[in-house]
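4.2 Preliminary Data

To establish feasibility before requesting continued support, the project team ran the inverse folding procedure on a target of 428 residues. The structure was first converted into the token representation described in Section 3, and no sequence information of any kind was made available to the design step. The complete token record follows.
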């Protein structure tokens, strides 16, 4: 980071397995680079938090990871963001690293829906401005050692940190239904495994799911000459931005729209204002919090996608019963007696948070994190039950609400962590 340049002399460590790091001797640890805070992951959350923490006086922090790599490598080219303009801004502490400033500097123009390629460029531009010293190395393991964490990196070096902020995103949580567990990836793959859907040109593909990524992948493939059908167990497709939503957003005046919808753009009318305030969400009974999360995160497609899906057959109320390879194709039995044999099944089946799938966390560290159905139970300051270990992004949604699943939640997460580390500095 600008204020605390990364020291170049990280120590080279020979380890048999990543978690042997815990046994590194005290003398060796004394010679390792030490930080107050390390951030693992450089997506919108890691970047926003890194930029904010770089403003906290006397706090030595460093961020590891390839900036925006999930958006660049694990989302299909040609995809657009569903979020509105304000919710696509990555929060920065001085409010200057906006989409508008990016457009002006690069002399480019775009609007909503924002193409994913532009969002990646924006995130990388943001990083170059706010965090020019970001360290692109991958984190291989994180383990606790006394009152520190040992973070080992892909080049077999390691650093020590008093605090770790886990900002690793949802990539590890891709959901593969059990029926496809034994099917090779050549025949059934998750949407997050593809960047270029034109690879399916000339083939027939069955897409499972009814959320944005399933529907948009189907639209993109259809436009590229792939024979595509969609199958979902849902009884209908939820298209966002219908006439009711349009009326509430635009028809009743700006004042009413502002009252009903927060700029963070998460959740329906009214609930959007609650979801925008994670500290308020936490005060509601658990049942309400769960219902809010479910409602705000239900599978849905952007209205602008509707027209592009006109030529695609969508099979509703249609669950998968079984799947089996037949030669170089895959046969899928669906409910209602439907059977399909296709070249490929694309699983637009979403993501299911389960932090045990963050395999870089040492087993001992993981065992110390209090959890609920895969989510960490977080305290104020996005703290896990392990002192010094913080988590944000989607894993924080059980504790702080659905805002944490979206780019627009990075502002709250950043302010929250600035407050936490500033308070701790004052207490010392
Ligand atoms: C198809 C699709 C469309 C979406 N559209 C929207 C949208 O329109 N608006 C919206 O707000 N949200 C959208 N989302 C949700 C989006 O994923 C999150 O809002 C956003 O990515 C959260 O940011 P993040 O920083 O938590 O995670 P990510 O963006 O996933 O960033 C995590 C980063 O951690 C890095 N990393 C992982 N492992 C390591 C490691 N071992 N060492 C170092 N770095 C590592 C990754 O490379 C990645 O860069 C969409 C998601 C999908 C799948």
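Position-by-position output of the design step:
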């Amino acid at each position: 980071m600008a204020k605390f340049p990364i020291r170049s002399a990280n120590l080279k460590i020979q380890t048999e397995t990543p978690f042997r790091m815990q046994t590194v001797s005290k003398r060796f640890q004394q010679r390792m680079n030490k930080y107050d805070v390390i951030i693992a992951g450089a997506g919108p959350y890691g970047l926003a938090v890194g930029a904010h923490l770089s403003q906290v006086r006397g706090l030595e922090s460093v961020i590891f990871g390839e900036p925006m790599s999930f958006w660049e490598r694990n989302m299909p080219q040609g995809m657009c963001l569903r979020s509105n303009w304000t919710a696509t801004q990555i929060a920065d502490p001085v409010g200057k690293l906006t989409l508008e400033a990016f457009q002006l500097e690069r002399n480019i123009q775009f609007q909503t829906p924002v193409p994913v390629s532009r969002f990646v460029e924006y995130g990388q531009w943001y990083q170059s401005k706010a965090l020019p010293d970001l360290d692109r190395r991958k984190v291989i393991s994180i383990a606790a050692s006394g009152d520190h964490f040992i973070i080992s990196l892909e080049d077999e070096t390691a650093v020590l940190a008093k605090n770790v902020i886990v900002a690793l995103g949802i990539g590890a949580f891709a959901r593969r239904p059990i029926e496809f567990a034994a099917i090779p990836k050549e025949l059934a793959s998750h949407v997050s495994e593809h960047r270029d859907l034109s690879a399916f040109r000339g083939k027939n593909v069955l897409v499972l799911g009814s959320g944005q990524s399933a529907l948009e992948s189907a639209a993109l493939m259809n436009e590229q000459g792939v024979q595509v059908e969609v199958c979902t167990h849902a009884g209908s497709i939820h298209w966002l931005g219908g006439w009711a939503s349009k009326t509430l957003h635009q028809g009743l005046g700006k004042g009413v729209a502002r009252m009903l919808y927060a700029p963070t753009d998460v959740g329906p009318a009214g609930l959007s204002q609650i979801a925008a305030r994670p500290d308020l969400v936490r005060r509601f009974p658990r049942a309400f919090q769960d219902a809010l999360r479910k409602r705000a995160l239900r599978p849905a497609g952007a209205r602008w996608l509707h027209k592009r899906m006109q030529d695609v057959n969508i099979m509703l109320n249609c669950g998968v019963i079984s799947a089996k390879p037949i030669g170089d194709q895959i046969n899928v039995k669906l409910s209602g007696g439907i059977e399909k044999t296709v070249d490929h099944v694309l699983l637009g089946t979403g993501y299911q948070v389960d932090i045990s799938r963050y395999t870089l966390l040492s087993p001992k560290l993981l065992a110390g994190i209090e959890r609920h159905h895969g989510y960490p139970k977080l305290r104020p300051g996005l703290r896990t039950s392990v002192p010094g270990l913080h988590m944000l992004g989607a894993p924080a949604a059980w504790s702080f609400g659905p805002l944490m699943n979206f780019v627009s939640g990075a502002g709250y997460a950043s302010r929250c962590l600035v407050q936490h580390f500033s308070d701790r500095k004052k207490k010392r």
